[in-house]
Amino acid sequence: MTHSLGTWTAGGRGQLFWLALKTSVWTVLTLGIYRFWMKTRLRRWYWSSVRPGGVPLEYVGDPLEKLLGFLIAVTFLAFYIGLVNLILMFASFAIFPGNVTAYVLSFLGLIPFYFYARYRARRYILARTRWRGIRFGLAPGAWGYAWRAMVHWLITIITLGLLWPRMTFWLEKYRTDRSFFGSQRLHQGGRWQMLYRPFLPMLIGVVLTIAASVAQSSGIFIARYLIVASVPLTLWGFVNYRVNSFKLLANQKSAGDIGFHAKPRVSRVLGIYLLGGFFVYFSLVLLLLGIGVAFFAAAAVYAPNLDALAEIQQVMARLPWWLSVAVGLGGYFSFFIFWGVLSHVFLTLPLIRHYADTLELRGTEALSRIDQRARDEFAEAEGFAEALDVGAAI
Amino acid sequence: MTTIAIGDQPNAATGFADFFDGRIAAARRVELVIDDARAEPELVIWPPESDEIRWPLSALRTVPDQAEREEMIIASIQDPVARLVLKDPDLAAILSSRCKRLRRRPPVAEMWRLVGWSAAALSSVALIIFVLVPIMANQLADYLPPRGEQALGDTTFEQIRVALDETGVLPLPICDAPEGVQALERMKQRLTERLDLPILSGWTFWTSIWSTPLPCPGGASSSSKA
Protein backbone atom coordinates (compact mmCIF):
# COMPACT_ATOMS: atom_id res chain seq x y z
CA MET A 1 0.00 0.00 0.00
CA THR A 2 1.33 3.44 -0.84
CA HIS A 3 1.23 6.36 1.56
CA SER A 4 0.09 9.76 0.50
CA LEU A 5 0.50 13.22 1.98
CA GLY A 6 -1.85 16.15 1.54
CA THR A 7 -0.68 19.74 1.57
CA TRP A 8 -1.74 22.18 4.30
CA THR A 9 -1.43 25.92 4.25
CA ALA A 10 -0.68 28.28 7.14
CA GLY A 11 -0.74 32.01 7.79
CA GLY A 12 -3.37 34.61 7.04
CA ARG A 13 -3.88 37.61 4.81
CA GLY A 14 -3.33 39.96 7.75
CA GLN A 15 0.20 38.67 8.43
CA LEU A 16 1.11 38.91 4.75
CA PHE A 17 -0.41 42.38 4.47
CA TRP A 18 1.74 43.80 7.27
CA LEU A 19 4.90 42.03 6.10
CA ALA A 20 4.43 43.24 2.52
CA LEU A 21 3.51 46.77 3.62
CA LYS A 22 6.43 47.09 6.05
CA THR A 23 9.00 45.77 3.57
CA SER A 24 7.61 47.91 0.70
CA VAL A 25 7.84 51.08 2.79
CA TRP A 26 11.45 50.21 3.67
CA THR A 27 12.16 49.64 -0.01
CA VAL A 28 10.94 53.15 -0.83
CA LEU A 29 12.81 54.70 2.11
CA THR A 30 16.10 53.02 1.12
CA LEU A 31 15.71 54.08 -2.55
CA GLY A 32 15.18 50.47 -3.63
CA ILE A 33 18.10 48.79 -1.86
CA TYR A 34 15.79 47.02 0.61
CA ARG A 35 14.04 45.40 -2.35
CA PHE A 36 16.35 42.38 -2.04
CA TRP A 37 15.45 42.00 1.64
CA MET A 38 11.77 42.44 0.82
CA LYS A 39 11.85 39.66 -1.78
CA THR A 40 13.73 37.36 0.60
CA ARG A 41 11.38 37.95 3.52
CA LEU A 42 8.24 37.57 1.41
CA ARG A 43 9.53 34.34 -0.11
CA ARG A 44 10.43 33.00 3.34
CA TRP A 45 6.87 33.71 4.44
CA TYR A 46 5.21 32.26 1.33
CA TRP A 47 7.39 29.14 1.37
CA SER A 48 6.67 28.54 5.08
CA SER A 49 2.93 28.88 4.42
CA VAL A 50 3.00 25.83 2.11
CA ARG A 51 3.20 22.61 4.14
CA PRO A 52 3.22 19.32 2.24
CA GLY A 53 2.52 16.61 4.79
CA GLY A 54 2.40 19.30 7.51
CA VAL A 55 6.10 20.19 7.13
CA PRO A 56 6.74 23.71 5.80
CA LEU A 57 8.91 24.49 2.81
CA GLU A 58 11.87 26.67 3.69
CA TYR A 59 13.40 29.43 1.61
CA VAL A 60 17.05 30.02 2.53
CA GLY A 61 18.00 32.62 -0.09
CA ASP A 62 20.09 35.50 1.17
CA PRO A 63 19.35 39.18 0.39
CA LEU A 64 23.03 40.03 0.02
CA GLU A 65 23.63 37.37 -2.60
CA LYS A 66 20.70 38.86 -4.52
CA LEU A 67 22.21 42.34 -4.30
CA LEU A 68 25.58 40.94 -5.38
CA GLY A 69 23.99 39.07 -8.28
CA PHE A 70 22.21 42.22 -9.38
CA LEU A 71 25.50 44.15 -9.38
CA ILE A 72 27.22 41.40 -11.40
CA ALA A 73 24.37 41.48 -13.93
CA VAL A 74 24.51 45.29 -14.15
CA THR A 75 28.26 45.13 -14.82
CA PHE A 76 27.73 42.81 -17.79
CA LEU A 77 24.54 44.38 -19.10
CA ALA A 78 26.13 47.84 -19.07
CA PHE A 79 28.48 46.60 -21.79
CA TYR A 80 25.61 45.21 -23.80
CA ILE A 81 23.47 48.30 -23.51
CA GLY A 82 26.33 50.73 -24.03
CA LEU A 83 28.70 49.20 -26.57
CA VAL A 84 26.69 46.64 -28.50
CA ASN A 85 23.90 49.16 -29.03
CA LEU A 86 26.35 51.82 -30.22
CA ILE A 87 27.78 49.43 -32.83
CA LEU A 88 24.28 48.35 -33.86
CA MET A 89 23.20 51.98 -34.19
CA PHE A 90 26.27 52.74 -36.33
CA ALA A 91 25.67 49.75 -38.59
CA SER A 92 21.99 50.60 -38.85
CA PHE A 93 22.66 54.19 -39.98
CA ALA A 94 25.53 53.15 -42.26
CA ILE A 95 23.77 50.32 -44.09
CA PHE A 96 20.05 51.10 -43.94
CA PRO A 97 19.86 54.81 -43.25
CA GLY A 98 17.61 54.91 -40.20
CA ASN A 99 17.62 53.62 -36.64
CA VAL A 100 14.75 51.10 -36.82
CA THR A 101 17.08 48.20 -37.69
CA ALA A 102 19.21 48.92 -34.61
CA TYR A 103 16.20 48.90 -32.29
CA VAL A 104 14.90 45.64 -33.78
CA LEU A 105 18.32 43.94 -33.61
CA SER A 106 18.92 45.16 -30.07
CA PHE A 107 15.57 43.76 -28.99
CA LEU A 108 16.19 40.45 -30.78
CA GLY A 109 19.62 40.24 -29.14
CA LEU A 110 18.03 40.43 -25.69
CA ILE A 111 15.65 37.51 -26.33
CA PRO A 112 18.19 34.73 -25.58
CA PHE A 113 19.18 36.59 -22.40
CA TYR A 114 15.53 36.67 -21.37
CA PHE A 115 15.19 32.85 -21.48
CA TYR A 116 18.69 32.39 -20.05
CA ALA A 117 17.76 34.64 -17.12
CA ARG A 118 14.49 32.81 -16.52
CA TYR A 119 16.23 29.45 -16.29
CA ARG A 120 18.95 30.85 -14.03
CA ALA A 121 16.32 32.44 -11.77
CA ARG A 122 14.54 29.11 -11.45
CA ARG A 123 17.83 27.38 -10.69
CA TYR A 124 18.56 29.92 -7.96
CA ILE A 125 15.11 29.62 -6.39
CA LEU A 126 15.17 25.80 -6.39
CA ALA A 127 18.72 25.75 -5.00
CA ARG A 128 17.52 27.90 -2.08
CA THR A 129 14.37 25.87 -1.37
CA ARG A 130 14.30 23.06 1.18
CA TRP A 131 11.73 20.66 2.46
CA ARG A 132 12.31 18.25 5.33
CA GLY A 133 15.86 19.61 5.56
CA ILE A 134 16.68 18.52 1.99
CA ARG A 135 17.67 20.92 -0.81
CA PHE A 136 15.98 21.13 -4.18
CA GLY A 137 18.11 21.80 -7.23
CA LEU A 138 18.17 22.40 -10.95
CA ALA A 139 21.05 21.14 -13.08
CA PRO A 140 22.89 23.77 -15.19
CA GLY A 141 21.48 24.20 -18.70
CA ALA A 142 20.42 27.82 -19.18
CA TRP A 143 21.83 28.25 -22.73
CA GLY A 144 20.30 24.92 -23.76
CA TYR A 145 17.02 26.21 -22.45
CA ALA A 146 17.43 29.56 -24.21
CA TRP A 147 17.92 28.13 -27.72
CA ARG A 148 15.22 25.49 -27.25
CA ALA A 149 12.77 28.14 -26.06
CA MET A 150 13.55 30.31 -29.10
CA VAL A 151 13.08 27.40 -31.55
CA HIS A 152 9.80 26.45 -29.87
CA TRP A 153 8.56 30.03 -30.03
CA LEU A 154 9.53 30.24 -33.69
CA ILE A 155 7.61 27.03 -34.47
CA THR A 156 4.63 28.30 -32.45
CA ILE A 157 4.62 31.62 -34.31
CA ILE A 158 5.02 29.97 -37.75
CA THR A 159 2.09 27.62 -37.02
CA LEU A 160 -0.03 30.60 -35.85
CA GLY A 161 -0.13 29.26 -32.30
CA LEU A 162 -1.43 25.80 -33.21
CA LEU A 163 1.61 24.10 -31.66
CA TRP A 164 1.54 26.11 -28.42
CA PRO A 165 0.83 22.99 -26.28
CA ARG A 166 3.88 21.31 -27.82
CA MET A 167 6.04 24.22 -26.63
CA THR A 168 4.45 24.19 -23.16
CA PHE A 169 5.15 20.48 -22.79
CA TRP A 170 8.73 20.33 -24.08
CA LEU A 171 9.93 23.37 -22.16
CA GLU A 172 8.33 22.06 -18.97
CA LYS A 173 9.94 18.67 -19.61
CA TYR A 174 13.35 20.28 -20.12
CA ARG A 175 13.05 22.06 -16.74
CA THR A 176 11.48 19.16 -14.83
CA ASP A 177 13.92 16.51 -16.08
CA ARG A 178 16.78 18.67 -14.71
CA SER A 179 15.12 19.26 -11.33
CA PHE A 180 16.09 17.42 -8.19
CA PHE A 181 14.77 16.91 -4.70
CA GLY A 182 17.92 15.97 -2.81
CA SER A 183 19.45 12.98 -4.58
CA GLN A 184 16.22 12.21 -6.44
CA ARG A 185 15.81 13.44 -10.01
CA LEU A 186 12.34 14.46 -11.18
CA HIS A 187 10.81 13.20 -14.39
CA GLN A 188 8.14 14.66 -16.64
CA GLY A 189 6.08 11.91 -18.24
CA GLY A 190 3.14 12.13 -20.66
CA ARG A 191 2.87 13.41 -24.23
CA TRP A 192 2.42 16.91 -25.58
CA GLN A 193 -0.83 15.91 -27.30
CA MET A 194 -2.48 15.50 -23.87
CA LEU A 195 -2.42 19.32 -23.51
CA TYR A 196 -4.53 19.78 -26.64
CA ARG A 197 -7.86 19.20 -24.90
CA PRO A 198 -7.49 22.09 -22.43
CA PHE A 199 -6.04 24.19 -25.28
CA LEU A 200 -9.10 23.83 -27.57
CA PRO A 201 -11.51 26.30 -25.89
CA MET A 202 -8.92 29.10 -26.07
CA LEU A 203 -8.12 28.22 -29.69
CA ILE A 204 -11.83 28.22 -30.62
CA GLY A 205 -12.28 31.54 -28.81
CA VAL A 206 -9.41 33.17 -30.74
CA VAL A 207 -10.57 31.78 -34.11
CA LEU A 208 -14.17 32.96 -33.48
CA THR A 209 -12.99 36.42 -32.40
CA ILE A 210 -10.85 36.83 -35.53
CA ALA A 211 -13.66 35.52 -37.77
CA ALA A 212 -16.20 37.82 -36.16
CA SER A 213 -13.90 40.85 -36.47
CA VAL A 214 -13.27 40.12 -40.16
CA ALA A 215 -17.00 39.59 -40.76
CA GLN A 216 -17.90 42.83 -39.01
CA SER A 217 -15.33 44.88 -40.90
CA SER A 218 -16.76 43.52 -44.17
CA GLY A 219 -20.23 44.74 -43.26
CA ILE A 220 -21.85 41.79 -41.49
CA PHE A 221 -22.91 43.68 -38.36
CA ILE A 222 -24.58 40.72 -36.67
CA ALA A 223 -21.02 39.45 -36.08
CA ARG A 224 -20.65 41.87 -33.15
CA TYR A 225 -22.92 39.60 -31.07
CA LEU A 226 -20.49 36.77 -31.73
CA ILE A 227 -17.65 38.89 -30.27
CA VAL A 228 -19.66 39.36 -27.07
CA ALA A 229 -19.46 35.58 -26.62
CA SER A 230 -16.07 34.83 -28.17
CA VAL A 231 -13.98 37.28 -26.10
CA PRO A 232 -15.11 35.88 -22.71
CA LEU A 233 -14.63 32.38 -24.16
CA THR A 234 -11.03 33.28 -25.04
CA LEU A 235 -10.32 34.67 -21.56
CA TRP A 236 -11.92 31.70 -19.84
CA GLY A 237 -10.04 29.43 -22.25
CA PHE A 238 -6.76 31.06 -21.27
CA VAL A 239 -7.33 30.41 -17.54
CA ASN A 240 -8.62 26.94 -18.37
CA TYR A 241 -5.43 26.18 -20.30
CA ARG A 242 -3.16 27.46 -17.53
CA VAL A 243 -4.91 25.52 -14.77
CA ASN A 244 -5.48 22.28 -16.64
CA SER A 245 -2.08 22.17 -18.32
CA PHE A 246 -0.53 22.62 -14.85
CA LYS A 247 -2.74 19.81 -13.55
CA LEU A 248 -1.99 17.39 -16.39
CA LEU A 249 1.74 18.12 -16.28
CA ALA A 250 1.88 17.78 -12.47
CA ASN A 251 0.04 14.48 -12.53
CA GLN A 252 2.57 13.10 -15.02
CA LYS A 253 5.56 14.20 -12.94
CA SER A 254 7.40 11.80 -10.70
CA ALA A 255 10.37 11.76 -8.35
CA GLY A 256 11.40 8.11 -8.26
CA ASP A 257 8.47 6.28 -6.65
CA ILE A 258 6.86 9.53 -5.52
CA GLY A 259 4.05 10.86 -7.66
CA PHE A 260 1.86 13.96 -7.64
CA HIS A 261 -1.87 14.37 -7.71
CA ALA A 262 -3.01 17.93 -8.41
CA LYS A 263 -6.68 18.95 -8.57
CA PRO A 264 -6.78 22.75 -9.04
CA ARG A 265 -10.16 24.07 -10.26
CA VAL A 266 -10.61 26.50 -13.13
CA SER A 267 -13.68 28.09 -11.46
CA ARG A 268 -11.73 28.83 -8.29
CA VAL A 269 -8.72 30.29 -10.13
CA LEU A 270 -10.99 32.40 -12.33
CA GLY A 271 -12.86 33.53 -9.20
CA ILE A 272 -9.58 34.61 -7.57
CA TYR A 273 -8.58 36.57 -10.69
CA LEU A 274 -11.97 38.32 -10.93
CA LEU A 275 -12.70 38.91 -7.24
CA GLY A 276 -9.06 39.59 -6.30
CA GLY A 277 -8.67 41.93 -9.26
CA PHE A 278 -11.86 43.72 -8.21
CA PHE A 279 -10.59 44.16 -4.62
CA VAL A 280 -7.22 45.47 -5.81
CA TYR A 281 -8.80 48.04 -8.16
CA PHE A 282 -11.52 48.98 -5.67
CA SER A 283 -8.92 49.64 -2.94
CA LEU A 284 -6.82 51.72 -5.30
CA VAL A 285 -9.85 53.79 -6.29
CA LEU A 286 -10.47 54.39 -2.57
CA LEU A 287 -6.84 55.47 -2.19
CA LEU A 288 -7.14 57.92 -5.10
CA LEU A 289 -10.35 59.29 -3.57
CA GLY A 290 -8.45 59.79 -0.31
CA ILE A 291 -5.75 61.76 -2.13
CA GLY A 292 -8.49 63.82 -3.78
CA VAL A 293 -10.11 64.56 -0.41
CA ALA A 294 -6.70 65.61 0.98
CA PHE A 295 -6.29 67.98 -1.97
CA PHE A 296 -9.71 69.57 -1.42
CA ALA A 297 -9.07 69.92 2.30
CA ALA A 298 -5.75 71.65 1.58
CA ALA A 299 -7.46 73.86 -1.01
CA ALA A 300 -10.14 74.87 1.51
CA VAL A 301 -7.42 75.97 3.95
CA TYR A 302 -4.92 77.71 1.64
CA ALA A 303 -7.10 78.92 -1.22
CA PRO A 304 -10.64 79.24 0.19
CA ASN A 305 -11.85 81.66 -2.48
CA LEU A 306 -10.88 79.51 -5.48
CA ASP A 307 -12.90 76.79 -7.15
CA ALA A 308 -10.64 73.79 -6.39
CA LEU A 309 -12.03 71.73 -9.26
CA ALA A 310 -11.85 74.33 -12.03
CA GLU A 311 -8.63 76.12 -11.01
CA ILE A 312 -6.40 73.24 -9.98
CA GLN A 313 -3.18 74.96 -11.12
CA GLN A 314 -3.88 78.19 -9.23
CA VAL A 315 -4.75 76.21 -6.10
CA MET A 316 -1.51 74.19 -6.45
CA ALA A 317 0.47 77.44 -6.70
CA ARG A 318 -0.92 78.66 -3.39
CA LEU A 319 -0.20 75.47 -1.43
CA PRO A 320 3.00 75.52 0.63
CA TRP A 321 5.77 73.60 -1.20
CA TRP A 322 6.19 71.01 1.57
CA LEU A 323 2.50 70.13 1.40
CA SER A 324 2.55 69.72 -2.40
CA VAL A 325 5.67 67.55 -2.17
CA ALA A 326 4.21 65.45 0.65
CA VAL A 327 0.88 64.88 -1.12
CA GLY A 328 2.56 64.34 -4.49
CA LEU A 329 5.31 61.93 -3.42
CA GLY A 330 3.13 60.28 -0.77
CA GLY A 331 0.34 59.74 -3.27
CA TYR A 332 2.72 58.45 -5.95
CA PHE A 333 4.53 55.95 -3.74
CA SER A 334 1.48 54.82 -1.76
CA PHE A 335 -0.25 54.02 -5.05
CA PHE A 336 2.53 51.64 -6.11
CA ILE A 337 3.07 50.26 -2.61
CA PHE A 338 -0.61 49.43 -2.22
CA TRP A 339 -0.77 48.05 -5.73
CA GLY A 340 1.98 45.55 -4.81
CA VAL A 341 0.73 44.78 -1.30
CA LEU A 342 -2.89 44.24 -2.36
CA SER A 343 -1.83 42.04 -5.26
CA HIS A 344 0.02 39.85 -2.77
CA VAL A 345 -2.96 39.66 -0.43
CA PHE A 346 -5.78 39.24 -2.96
CA LEU A 347 -4.09 37.49 -5.89
CA THR A 348 -0.75 35.78 -5.18
CA LEU A 349 -1.63 34.33 -1.76
CA PRO A 350 -5.07 32.91 -2.71
CA LEU A 351 -3.61 31.40 -5.90
CA ILE A 352 -0.66 29.75 -4.10
CA ARG A 353 -3.05 28.48 -1.43
CA HIS A 354 -5.42 26.97 -3.93
CA TYR A 355 -2.66 25.20 -5.85
CA ALA A 356 -1.16 23.97 -2.54
CA ASP A 357 -4.46 22.89 -0.96
CA THR A 358 -5.29 20.74 -3.99
CA LEU A 359 -1.88 19.05 -4.24
CA GLU A 360 -1.21 15.57 -2.91
CA LEU A 361 2.02 13.55 -2.85
CA ARG A 362 1.81 9.81 -3.37
CA GLY A 363 4.23 7.01 -2.59
CA THR A 364 5.81 9.10 0.17
CA GLU A 365 7.31 6.08 1.95
CA ALA A 366 10.14 6.58 -0.57
CA LEU A 367 11.02 9.91 1.09
CA SER A 368 13.20 8.22 3.70
CA ARG A 369 15.49 6.96 0.92
CA ILE A 370 16.20 10.46 -0.42
CA ASP A 371 19.59 11.92 0.53
CA GLN A 372 20.91 15.47 0.69
CA ARG A 373 22.49 17.14 -2.35
CA ALA A 374 25.46 19.52 -2.36
CA ARG A 375 24.91 23.25 -2.09
CA ASP A 376 24.74 25.13 -5.40
CA GLU A 377 26.88 28.21 -4.73
CA PHE A 378 25.64 30.27 -7.64
CA ALA A 379 27.40 33.64 -7.29
CA GLU A 380 25.11 35.72 -9.49
CA ALA A 381 21.87 34.50 -7.80
CA GLU A 382 18.96 35.77 -9.92
CA GLY A 383 20.81 38.94 -10.89
CA PHE A 384 20.12 38.73 -14.63
CA ALA A 385 16.44 38.06 -14.07
CA GLU A 386 16.32 41.00 -11.68
CA ALA A 387 18.21 43.35 -13.99
CA LEU A 388 16.09 42.36 -17.00
CA ASP A 389 12.93 42.28 -14.86
CA VAL A 390 11.91 38.75 -15.80
CA GLY A 391 11.87 37.54 -12.17
CA ALA A 392 9.37 35.03 -10.84
CA ALA A 393 5.94 36.12 -9.66
CA ILE A 394 7.10 36.79 -6.12
CA MET B 1 5.91 17.33 29.16
CA THR B 2 7.63 20.46 30.41
CA THR B 3 8.88 21.13 33.91
CA ILE B 4 9.76 24.56 35.14
CA ALA B 5 11.82 24.59 38.32
CA ILE B 6 12.09 27.48 40.74
CA GLY B 7 15.40 27.89 42.52
CA ASP B 8 19.05 28.80 42.01
CA GLN B 9 19.70 26.33 39.22
CA PRO B 10 17.39 26.00 36.23
CA ASN B 11 16.08 22.49 36.10
CA ALA B 12 16.34 20.27 33.04
CA ALA B 13 13.61 21.42 30.66
CA THR B 14 12.37 18.63 28.41
CA GLY B 15 9.99 18.24 25.50
CA PHE B 16 9.53 16.71 22.06
CA ALA B 17 10.01 17.98 18.52
CA ASP B 18 10.30 16.82 14.90
CA PHE B 19 13.90 16.63 13.78
CA PHE B 20 15.27 16.75 10.23
CA ASP B 21 18.94 15.90 10.24
CA GLY B 22 19.69 17.41 6.80
CA ARG B 23 21.05 14.10 5.49
CA ILE B 24 17.89 12.19 4.59
CA ALA B 25 14.35 13.42 3.94
CA ALA B 26 12.86 11.53 6.89
CA ALA B 27 11.26 13.20 9.91
CA ARG B 28 12.20 11.85 13.31
CA ARG B 29 10.40 12.44 16.60
CA VAL B 30 13.08 13.42 19.10
CA GLU B 31 13.25 14.11 22.81
CA LEU B 32 14.80 17.43 23.84
CA VAL B 33 16.57 18.18 27.11
CA ILE B 34 18.45 21.28 28.19
CA ASP B 35 21.66 20.12 29.83
CA ASP B 36 23.01 22.64 32.34
CA ALA B 37 25.67 20.33 33.74
CA ARG B 38 28.34 21.55 31.32
CA ALA B 39 30.16 24.86 31.35
CA GLU B 40 28.05 26.04 28.42
CA PRO B 41 24.40 24.94 28.53
CA GLU B 42 23.39 22.70 25.64
CA LEU B 43 20.23 21.48 23.96
CA VAL B 44 20.44 17.70 23.77
CA ILE B 45 18.54 16.07 20.90
CA TRP B 46 17.80 12.39 21.29
CA PRO B 47 16.69 10.72 18.07
CA PRO B 48 15.31 7.19 18.44
CA GLU B 49 17.91 4.46 18.04
CA SER B 50 20.85 6.78 17.35
CA ASP B 51 23.41 8.92 19.14
CA GLU B 52 22.46 12.17 20.84
CA ILE B 53 23.18 15.49 19.16
CA ARG B 54 24.29 18.49 21.26
CA TRP B 55 23.69 22.09 20.22
CA PRO B 56 25.02 24.86 22.55
CA LEU B 57 22.17 27.22 23.50
CA SER B 58 24.29 30.15 22.27
CA ALA B 59 24.41 28.58 18.77
CA LEU B 60 20.62 28.24 18.39
CA ARG B 61 18.79 30.47 15.89
CA THR B 62 15.14 30.63 14.86
CA VAL B 63 14.17 30.61 11.18
CA PRO B 64 12.48 34.03 10.67
CA ASP B 65 9.32 35.19 8.84
CA GLN B 66 7.31 31.99 9.41
CA ALA B 67 3.63 31.88 8.51
CA GLU B 68 2.78 29.34 11.21
CA ARG B 69 2.86 31.25 14.50
CA GLU B 70 2.19 28.22 16.69
CA GLU B 71 5.49 26.66 15.78
CA MET B 72 9.15 27.51 16.20
CA ILE B 73 11.77 26.28 13.72
CA ILE B 74 15.23 26.10 15.21
CA ALA B 75 18.60 25.72 13.52
CA SER B 76 22.14 25.72 14.85
CA ILE B 77 24.92 27.84 13.39
CA GLN B 78 27.08 24.72 13.66
CA ASP B 79 24.87 22.82 11.21
CA PRO B 80 23.46 24.73 8.20
CA VAL B 81 20.85 22.14 7.18
CA ALA B 82 19.44 20.36 10.27
CA ARG B 83 16.12 21.70 11.60
CA LEU B 84 14.00 21.21 14.71
CA VAL B 85 10.28 21.89 14.39
CA LEU B 86 8.99 22.72 17.85
CA LYS B 87 5.25 22.83 18.54
CA ASP B 88 5.48 22.86 22.35
CA PRO B 89 4.75 26.47 23.43
CA ASP B 90 6.22 26.02 26.93
CA LEU B 91 9.55 24.72 25.71
CA ALA B 92 9.58 27.43 23.01
CA ALA B 93 9.10 30.04 25.75
CA ILE B 94 11.94 28.56 27.83
CA LEU B 95 14.29 28.53 24.83
CA SER B 96 13.29 32.09 23.94
CA SER B 97 14.19 33.31 27.40
CA ARG B 98 17.39 31.29 27.78
CA CYS B 99 18.93 31.66 24.30
CA LYS B 100 19.89 35.30 24.07
CA ARG B 101 20.99 35.04 20.43
CA LEU B 102 17.95 33.10 19.20
CA ARG B 103 16.79 35.93 16.93
CA ARG B 104 20.20 37.22 15.92
CA ARG B 105 20.76 37.20 12.15
CA PRO B 106 24.03 35.93 10.68
CA PRO B 107 26.75 38.55 10.09
CA VAL B 108 27.22 39.93 6.58
CA ALA B 109 29.42 37.40 4.87
CA GLU B 110 31.70 38.32 1.96
CA MET B 111 31.46 42.05 2.58
CA TRP B 112 34.56 42.68 0.46
CA ARG B 113 33.00 40.90 -2.53
CA LEU B 114 29.90 43.04 -2.22
CA VAL B 115 31.93 46.24 -2.09
CA GLY B 116 34.08 45.01 -5.00
CA TRP B 117 31.14 44.26 -7.27
CA SER B 118 29.38 47.51 -6.31
CA ALA B 119 32.50 49.37 -7.39
CA ALA B 120 32.76 47.25 -10.56
CA ALA B 121 29.13 47.93 -11.49
CA LEU B 122 29.42 51.67 -10.96
CA SER B 123 32.79 52.01 -12.68
CA SER B 124 31.77 49.89 -15.68
CA VAL B 125 28.76 52.14 -16.24
CA ALA B 126 30.96 55.25 -15.83
CA LEU B 127 33.67 53.78 -18.10
CA ILE B 128 31.15 53.11 -20.83
CA ILE B 129 29.42 56.49 -20.67
CA PHE B 130 32.49 58.71 -20.26
CA VAL B 131 35.28 56.81 -22.03
CA LEU B 132 34.30 53.97 -24.35
CA VAL B 133 31.23 55.47 -26.00
CA PRO B 134 32.94 58.83 -26.84
CA ILE B 135 36.07 57.07 -28.19
CA MET B 136 34.09 54.62 -30.29
CA ALA B 137 31.71 57.31 -31.52
CA ASN B 138 34.72 59.37 -32.67
CA GLN B 139 36.28 56.45 -34.51
CA LEU B 140 33.07 55.19 -36.05
CA ALA B 141 32.17 58.69 -37.28
CA ASP B 142 35.04 58.45 -39.81
CA TYR B 143 33.49 55.40 -41.38
CA LEU B 144 29.88 56.58 -41.51
CA PRO B 145 28.92 57.15 -45.19
CA PRO B 146 27.33 60.57 -46.04
CA ARG B 147 23.92 58.93 -46.58
CA GLY B 148 24.07 57.42 -43.07
CA GLU B 149 25.20 60.74 -41.62
CA GLN B 150 22.26 62.43 -43.30
CA ALA B 151 19.84 59.89 -41.80
CA LEU B 152 21.42 60.34 -38.36
CA GLY B 153 21.05 64.12 -38.73
CA ASP B 154 17.39 63.86 -39.72
CA THR B 155 16.66 61.62 -36.73
CA THR B 156 18.53 63.91 -34.35
CA PHE B 157 16.75 66.93 -35.84
CA GLU B 158 13.31 65.43 -35.15
CA GLN B 159 14.34 64.36 -31.64
CA ILE B 160 15.60 67.86 -30.78
CA ARG B 161 12.47 69.39 -32.30
CA VAL B 162 10.28 67.35 -29.95
CA ALA B 163 12.60 67.80 -26.97
CA LEU B 164 12.74 71.61 -27.27
CA ASP B 165 8.99 71.95 -27.23
CA GLU B 166 7.80 72.85 -23.77
CA THR B 167 4.80 70.55 -23.77
CA GLY B 168 7.08 67.66 -24.72
CA VAL B 169 4.42 66.24 -27.00
CA LEU B 170 4.21 68.30 -30.21
CA PRO B 171 7.30 69.10 -32.29
CA LEU B 172 8.25 72.77 -32.63
CA PRO B 173 6.60 74.46 -35.62
CA ILE B 174 8.94 75.17 -38.55
CA CYS B 175 9.11 78.75 -39.79
CA ASP B 176 8.40 78.92 -43.54
CA ALA B 177 7.43 82.62 -43.85
CA PRO B 178 9.19 84.31 -46.83
CA GLU B 179 11.10 86.74 -44.56
CA GLY B 180 12.37 83.90 -42.44
CA VAL B 181 13.44 81.85 -45.43
CA GLN B 182 15.26 84.84 -46.90
CA ALA B 183 17.02 85.65 -43.66
CA LEU B 184 18.09 82.05 -43.35
CA GLU B 185 19.37 82.03 -46.94
CA ARG B 186 21.53 85.13 -46.25
CA MET B 187 22.90 83.60 -43.09
CA LYS B 188 23.65 80.37 -44.94
CA GLN B 189 25.60 82.17 -47.65
CA ARG B 190 27.65 84.16 -45.17
CA LEU B 191 28.47 81.06 -43.17
CA THR B 192 29.43 78.82 -46.08
CA GLU B 193 31.28 81.29 -48.33
CA ARG B 194 34.70 80.01 -47.51
CA LEU B 195 33.79 76.44 -46.67
CA ASP B 196 33.87 73.39 -48.87
CA LEU B 197 31.27 71.02 -47.44
CA PRO B 198 30.11 67.82 -49.08
CA ILE B 199 26.42 68.18 -48.31
CA LEU B 200 24.36 71.16 -47.37
CA SER B 201 20.73 70.68 -46.76
CA GLY B 202 17.99 71.21 -44.25
CA TRP B 203 18.45 74.74 -42.99
CA THR B 204 15.43 75.31 -40.86
CA PHE B 205 14.01 78.06 -38.72
CA TRP B 206 11.85 77.21 -35.81
CA THR B 207 10.30 79.16 -33.00
CA SER B 208 11.78 78.53 -29.63
CA ILE B 209 12.65 80.45 -26.50
CA TRP B 210 16.35 79.97 -27.31
CA SER B 211 18.13 81.62 -30.22
CA THR B 212 21.02 79.26 -30.73
CA PRO B 213 22.09 77.48 -33.91
CA LEU B 214 22.10 73.71 -33.42
CA PRO B 215 24.32 71.81 -35.82
CA CYS B 216 23.13 68.30 -36.59
CA PRO B 217 25.14 65.52 -38.27
CA GLY B 218 24.94 65.21 -42.02
CA GLY B 219 24.95 68.95 -42.67
CA ALA B 220 21.41 69.41 -41.42
CA SER B 221 22.03 72.56 -39.48
CA SER B 222 19.05 73.92 -37.66
CA SER B 223 18.91 77.46 -36.50
CA SER B 224 16.47 78.54 -33.89
CA LYS B 225 15.18 81.97 -33.11
CA ALA B 226 13.07 83.43 -30.38
Fold and architecture overview:
The complex is a heterodimer of chains A (394) and B (226). Chain A is an alpha+beta fold and 394 residues long. Chain A contains twelve helices and ten strands. A ten-stranded antiparallel beta sheet of chain A has the order 2-1-10-9-8-7-6-5-4-3. In chain A, strand 6 (179-181) and strand 7 (184-188) form a beta hairpin. Chain A is globular. In chain A, 32% of the residues are buried. Chain B is rod-shaped, with a radius of gyration of 38 Å. By secondary structure, chain B is α+β, with helices and mostly antiparallel strands. Mean pLDDT of chain B is 79; it is low at 220-226. Chain B has a seven-stranded antiparallel beta sheet with strand order 4-3-2-1-7-6-5, covered by helices on one side. Chain B has a four-stranded mixed beta sheet with strand order 8-9-11-10, with helices on both faces. At the A-B interface, helix 2 and helix 3 of A face strand 7, helix 2 and helix 3 of B.
